[in-house]
Every structure is written in C-alpha cells, then in structure tokens.
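quick q for whoever's on today - can somebody do inverse folding on this one?? i tried earlier but teh output was garbage lol. tokens:
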C-alpha cells in the first residue's frame, strides 16, 4: 500500500520537463511537511531521487585531469629513465680508482653463479597454493549459496568457533610451554596460569557480548541473507571485478619497470673517505628520488581509485536490480552501463574518492608510525585520538557517498551532502549495518580459512616429507584463502551498503521496490542523533 504523501505521478529526477533535484516543484503543491519543527527542511525536494538511467554529465573534472597528469608524468619520466639509463651500474664492483687519471676505471672480471633450491619444498608449496586458488572459487560460491539460503545456520555454526579457536590456542600454548623446558624456565607456573585465566576471562566477555546482542545478531543475519540474494542475482560481478584487478596489475607492470630503471640513472664517481682513501661509488641523479615519490604516489592513488571504481560498479549494478520492480523488466547490460559510468562521466568523482582514501591511509600510517616510535605525552595522545576519529569519519562517509554517486551520477560533494540528508531525514543509523555485518562476515571467513589450513596441514603431513615445513605451507594456504574470501566479503559488504542506501531512497519516496528488503530493513534501529518526534510515519505494506 503506497504512502499518502506520494504524488499520483512520480517526478523523474532526470526528465527534462521536471524541476531540478534540489529545487521545490511548483505543481503539485507540497504536502504538509512532517518536519514542522525544522523550517529549513523540505522533504519534497528529495522525492525524485532514483537511479539515473539517462546519459550522465561529467563531474569533478578537475580531479580527473589531476589524476591523468600524475599518470602521464609518471610514464613520461619512466620512459626517460629507461632511455637514459647507465649500464655501468650492474658492474659497479668491477670499477677501481685510478690515481693517474683521478677517475674510476673498469676492470674486466668474470663471475660464476651457482644456484640451488629445494625442489621438493617448492613443488609442494606450489601445488598447495594452486589447489587452494582453484578450490577458492567453489568455496566462495558455496558460501554465497549458504548465506543466501541458510544464513542463520551458517552464522550460528560459526559462532562457537569464535570461542573454541581462542580456547584451543590458549590451552595449546599453556601445554606446550609447560612441556618445553626453556619456556617453563622463562615463565613460572604461576605466570602461565595467570595468562591462561586472563585469556579465558576475555573469551567469557566475548561470549557475554554475543548473548547480550543476540537480537542484533538476528537482524544482521537477515541483512546478510538479503544481500546474498542480491549478489546471487548479479553473479556476473565475480567475472568483472577480477578482470579489473588484473587490469590494475598490468597497469602496475610498466611502472615497476620504470622504478627499476630509475635506479640506473646516475654515474660512477670517485669518493674520498675520512682516512683519505678513494673508492668508486654510485651517485644517482638528483631527480631520481623525486620520481620515486611521484611513482609511489601515483601507484597508491591508482590502487584506491580502482577500489572505489569497483565499489561504484557494484553499487550501480545492484541499484539497477533493486529499482526494477519486475524481473521481466530488468535492464540489460547493467554491469556494462555501470562500467561506462565509472570510467566515463563519473571517473572524476571516483578519482576524488580514491584520493581521499589514499590521503587517509597515508595520514593513518604516519600516526601509527609516530605511536610506534614511543612519542608520549597527553597532548600527543589527544591529537592521535582526534586524528583517528576524523580519519574514520572521512572513511565512513566516503563509503556511502560513492554508493550514492553510482546511483544518481551526482558530483562527490553533492552526493556526500545528499547522502547525509537522506539518512538523517529517515533517521537511519548506518553504523549498525556497517559494523556488525562486517565483523560477523570477517569472523566467518576466518573460521573457514582456519579449518581449511588445519585440513591442509594434516594432508601435507600424511602425503609429503616436509616435516615442520608443512606448518609453513599450510599457513601460506591459509593466507591465500583468506585473501580470496576477504575479497568476497568486500563485495558482499558493498552490496549490503548499496541495498541499505536503496532502501533509504525507497523509504524517502514512500515506495516498495523490493518487498523482502523492506521486511528486514524496517527493523533497523533509529539513529540516536535525531528526535523520534520528527520521524515520518509511512505505510509501506510490510
């Protein structure tokens, strides 16, 4: 049943006959605003928000041009480094100082290299990683199918392992330390018992948190199930996203080559030591460090831009599926249109989003480095807390901004402001969706990858002669699988955010595009930052 506030004919945001997005329509007259206590708020100006299927104008062109300038400068300087390289760098050790000519002279010498490797270890390691990579694909699809149909069973089957695995490692350490003479001498029995009891108490706190937040876990399970269903309707994303990663690797290859050849730009020159002895050393050209900084910044910005482009493609594809009420009317080539928008009209917006994420990562690395250096003081502590809070807020806001930009095609700043107003107007709290679902999914993939590593270690112990190296090979297989499953969770997490924003748009318009989504998301908690009296009461038929 539709909302009483909904106009008889929806106004299209991108229809040339309609008014602009942020302007107040003249006809029909606006309904009575439920925000009577906030005179500056006009909900009718947002009734037109929906997915923009029309050709989109270019946005944030300045950042697109800046990104292209970085890339072109990196490649141009890299080509210069390759052309003007000095081949004498590789034979630096064959140069000796000549006192007569007061320069370095090359002596002809011969070298022989003997290579040896552990063929058995490398063979077992290679086969283990290859098999893990092959099995990761059916594991991902099986996990998606289980989360779609049996999300509750999967989550509750994984929750005990969140407790059992820490207990196992805690007890295993206690027993191993007791058996080992060196460990038992370093840690007396009293200390070992204290450590054991301490970790058991921490595990008990974790169990209490699970029990106290059981209602939230139930809602999160439903959200994960809905998002898994949405992702299963767009399985082609699993073919496109890895290709984008491969494109990034191919794009990185020449830059890495340029960095290698940049080291070869310089000359061999004589240098006098403190005791008056001359030796031949390599002196780089003055521009080489600057090129290293430029290339590394370009690679970092390109990485974050590709990540944001993938989020844009996921959001655009899922949003098109969401706003199609009938499956028979589902648009064709949804992924292709999202790719065209991401690397076309909205690429400047994607570049700006990637730049912000890159800056956040660099500043966070600097702050963490300062903390590790032992910088103390209450002022430094307060500054670190403020910086971390600011960086987390930027990272959090950016996540939903790029989703909104993928849906509407708006510029970055406009998308950020409209996303905030949309969620505030509907009193929705994104913290619940963002935090709990992400941690729960991370816990599930940790459990699955840990179980896989245990099975792999047992098999390696049975069929190979690796000995203690089997633990190292199993650990690498665990790392590889958790990276692949982490990418799967990254995709599913973006689907959750997209469906969340689409639900907020639906709720704002008083429509129901996906009934099953509304039945779940209607149970989301209301944001505590706004007064319950300003909530819009709508009948959505759920």
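ok took a stab at it. sequence:
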């Amino acid at each position: 049943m539709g909302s009483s506030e909904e106009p008889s004919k929806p106004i299209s945001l991108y229809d040339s006959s309609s008014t602009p997005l942020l302007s107040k329509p003249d006809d029909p007259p606006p309904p009575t605003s439920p925000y009577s206590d906030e005179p500056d708020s006009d909900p009718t100006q947002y009734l037109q928000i929906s997915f923009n299927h029309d050709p989109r104008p270019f946005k944030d062109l300045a950042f697109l041009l800046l990104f292209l300038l970085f890339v072109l400068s990196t490649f141009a300087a890299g080509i210069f480094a390759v052309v003007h390289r000095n081949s004498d760098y590789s034979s630096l050790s064959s140069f000796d100082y000549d006192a007569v000519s007061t320069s370095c002279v090359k002596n002809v010498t011969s070298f022989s290299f003997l290579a040896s490797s552990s063929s058995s270890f490398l063979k077992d390691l290679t086969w283990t990683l290859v098999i893990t990579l092959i099995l990761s694909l059916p594991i991902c699809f099986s996990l998606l199918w289980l989360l779609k149909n049996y999300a509750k069973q999967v989550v509750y089957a994984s929750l005990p392992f969140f407790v059992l695995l820490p207990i196992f490692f805690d007890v295993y350490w206690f027993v191993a330390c007791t058996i080992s003479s060196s460990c038992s001498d370093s840690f007396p029995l009293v200390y070992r018992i204290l450590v054991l009891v301490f970790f058991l108490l921490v595990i008990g706190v974790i169990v209490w948190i699970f029990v106290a937040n059981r209602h939230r876990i139930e809602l999160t399970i439903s959200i994960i199930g809905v998002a898994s269903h949405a992702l299963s309707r767009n399985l082609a994303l699993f073919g496109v996203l890895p290709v984008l990663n491969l494109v990034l690797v191919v794009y990185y290859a020449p830059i890495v080559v340029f960095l290698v050849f940049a080291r070869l730009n310089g000359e061999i020159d004589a240098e006098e030591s403190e005791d008056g002895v001359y030796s031949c050393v390599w002196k780089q050209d003055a521009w080489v460090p600057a090129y290293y900084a430029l290339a590394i910044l370009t690679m970092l910005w390109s990485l974050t831009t590709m990540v944001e482009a993938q989020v844009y493609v996921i959001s655009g594809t899922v949003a098109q599926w969401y706003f199609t009420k009938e499956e028979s009317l589902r648009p064709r080539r949804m992924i292709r249109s999202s790719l065209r928008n991401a690397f076309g009209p909205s690429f400047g917006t994607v570049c700006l989003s990637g730049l912000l994420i890159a800056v956040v990562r660099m500043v966070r690395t600097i702050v963490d480095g300062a903390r590790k250096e032992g910088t103390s003081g209450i002022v430094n502590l307060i500054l670190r807390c403020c910086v971390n809070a600011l960086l987390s807020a930027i990272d959090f806001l950016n996540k939903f901004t790029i989703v909104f930009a993928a849906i509407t095609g708006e510029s970055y700043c406009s998308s950020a402001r409209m996303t905030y107003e949309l969620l505030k107007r509907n009193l929705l709290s994104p913290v619940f969706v963002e935090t709990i679902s992400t941690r729960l999914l991370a816990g599930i993939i940790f459990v699955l990858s840990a179980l896989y590593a245990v099975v792999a270690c047992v098999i390696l112990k049975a069929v190979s002669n690796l000995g203690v190296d089997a633990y190292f090979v199993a650990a690498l297989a665990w790392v590889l699988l958790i990276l692949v499953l982490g990418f799967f969770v990254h995709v599913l997490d973006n689907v959750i955010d997209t469906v969340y924003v689409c639900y907020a748009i639906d709720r704002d318009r008083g429509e129901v595009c996906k009934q099953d989504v509304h039945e779940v998301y209607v149970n989301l908690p209301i944001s505590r930052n706004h007064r319950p009296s300003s909530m819009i009461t709508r009948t959505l038929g759920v």
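fwiw The longest strand covers residues 266-272. also The radius of gyration is 29 Å. so keep that in mind when u check it
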